[in-house]
Amino acid sequence: MSGEYPLVEPTGSLLLAWQVSRESILLVGAGPVASSRLYHLVCAQPRKIYVVAPDDDNVDPEMRYRMTADPDAGAGGNGGVEIEWIKRKYSEHDHADLQLVLQDGQGGGGGGLGMVLVATDDATLSTRICAECRRLRIPVNVADVPPECDFYFGSVLRRGALSVMVSTNGKGPRIAARLRRRIEKSIPDGAGEAIARVGDLRAALRRVEPGKGNDAIAQRMQWMIRVSDQWSIEQLARMDPDMRHRVLQGWATDSAPSYYDVAPARINSLAALGLRAGRAVGLLGPGGSCPVDRDPDGNVRRCPFVLGMTGFVTGLVTASVAVAAWHRYSSMSRR
Amino acid sequence: MSGEYPLVEPTGSLLLAWQVSRESILLVGAGPVASSRLYHLVCAQPRKIYVVAPDDDNVDPEMRYRMTADPDAGAGGNGGVEIEWIKRKYSEHDHADLQLVLQDGQGGGGGGLGMVLVATDDATLSTRICAECRRLRIPVNVADVPPECDFYFGSVLRRGALSVMVSTNGKGPRIAARLRRRIEKSIPDGAGEAIARVGDLRAALRRVEPGKGNDAIAQRMQWMIRVSDQWSIEQLARMDPDMRHRVLQGWATDSAPSYYDVAPARINSLAALGLRAGRAVGLLGPGGSCPVDRDPDGNVRRCPFVLGMTGFVTGLVTASVAVAAWHRYSSMSRR
């Protein structure tokens, strides 16, 4: 029976998208490593971040900037996340700071203290915090000390709601960063936009068909898949409110409009004309898109207008060459 | 001060590589979703996996295969991970199964129960398990029920120790899978191999220079960076024990041999000759590699032999054309 199923790749860790919106997070330290952690954290949008570190010259400038940013600075500052800077060294003897965050989380009705990140040069302190966290069953990460980490941070790239993590499970952080840069180039422009636009379409569909039963949910999901699978990521990113409105009209007639059915530009109207003609004579697939020129994701790869024009020009040229050749041949034989 | 620092991208979740080697994991359910979870789990190599599900026709065939695989099947089976299948419906009233795993973890000296994954059709059961896990501070994921998830699974690709997760934080799972397939194509063949070979080199270096002080660690790290940064990922993947031995000889002389310095083939010897000549006349950078033709990762992009030969042939052609033109000009002016 082996061979039928995917082989096990022993990566050694489980990649997860940890949900922190209802949690507070405690970060101990304010050096360059803590600063990089803080950036990860503000992108993750937790309920609140507590930072425990003395206010001295060792505070990383970017970290200081984010901790003291104007709440209105938004994405340019702390991303709208509340950060409380407790300006002293972590008191390892009573763990008062840990207790403070724990109590705040429980009192506020949130999910409590989600995790503790330690990034200080004080190895003794780190070990004590780690032990206390494990006693309290709070996930902990001590930078650069693998045995004191319940989780690692990989190399991450972000585009809006999209995030990609490259992990080598600590075996090659530098190769991970190199691969992350290669991957960055392979992600189409507007991937983050495309995800947002699919979210908009899903929300609009729920307004048109608000049913909450399992059948309604399944129907909506099926239609969303039919529509989005025939749009490329670049096309999804270009779906504006007008186009969304026209796509939604397909829901009533149980059809899945393609990009070329709803795009406004003249060239796309020509393409849509081609699509409709193709459908009418039965050349095109049931989704209404070209049955041949699809990428491995099942998306239409080329604009049908371009394909058609290419065919036309190739035909013109072939014919002209044939005519010229025949002309020459007949004029030669006449000689 | 804004603008200096990266903008916050509100992805809404924290991507983590969760360490499970000392933990047990409880999986409730054995349908297709549970089966996909189980594959993630065996790749993560936890201490032990407990599965609670009745032994009936609803068990997914791949899941049944992995749960009952011969331990010697290795990567083709359960990847060497111990799986205990508790063949009954989860008893939500006493949570006996959860208690069993908790006690086993504590008794065995391991890290205890790391997380609970629920993938059943029984929504009432799922909600009860989730509540009990939150009471016990055990991270939990109930498939398809976001409010009952402390973490999500993204779309993951794996190559040996390398793993890449694409997450849209639940906003576009289908787009995540499409991007994962695009990313798959951008990852060089042998990326997993390259990570393994860098690990081998690091281990060999520790045998040559076993110092445990901070200085020794920093020196080793610096040299590893100097070496690996001038090897492409494809070259690293080809580092065999002979080449590794020759690379290590660079440690004593504080030099960082490039691929072309240590590769065995004749063509590479020619390339190395070119590199050495370049270094001798001071044309090449201190690392010994071309100062010009580097990709954004700082790696040598082309084989110097090819570059040189291209230059040579271009020169030959330029000269020939010039000579021919001059010849023609002078013969014309002689007429």
Question: How would you characterize the overall build of this protein?
Answer:
The structure is a homodimer of 335-residue chains. By secondary structure, chain A is α/β, with parallel strands linked by helices. The first copy, chain A, has 3 domains: 24-153, 3-Layer(aba) Sandwich (Rossmann fold); 159-187, no CATH class; 191-304. Helix content of chain A is 48%, strand content 13%. Chain A has 12 helices and 9 strands. Chain A has helices at residues 32-44, 61-67, 96-107, 123-135, 173-186, 191-208, 214-229, 233-237, 241-252, 259-262, 266-280, 304-334; strands at 13-19, 24-28, 48-52, 82-86, 113-118, 140-142, 151-152, 155-159, 162-167. In chain A, strands 4-3-2-5-6 form a 5-stranded parallel beta sheet, sandwiched between helices. A two-stranded antiparallel ribbon of chain A has the order 8-9. In chain A, helix 11 packs across helix 12 (304-334). The first copy, chain A, is elongated, with a radius of gyration of 29 Å. Residues 285-302 of chain A have low confidence and may be disordered. At the A-B interface, strand 1, helix 1, helix 2, strand 7 and strand 8 of A face strand 1, helix 1, helix 2, strand 7 and strand 8 of B. Strand 1 (13-19) of chain A pairs antiparallel with strand 1 (13-19) of chain B.
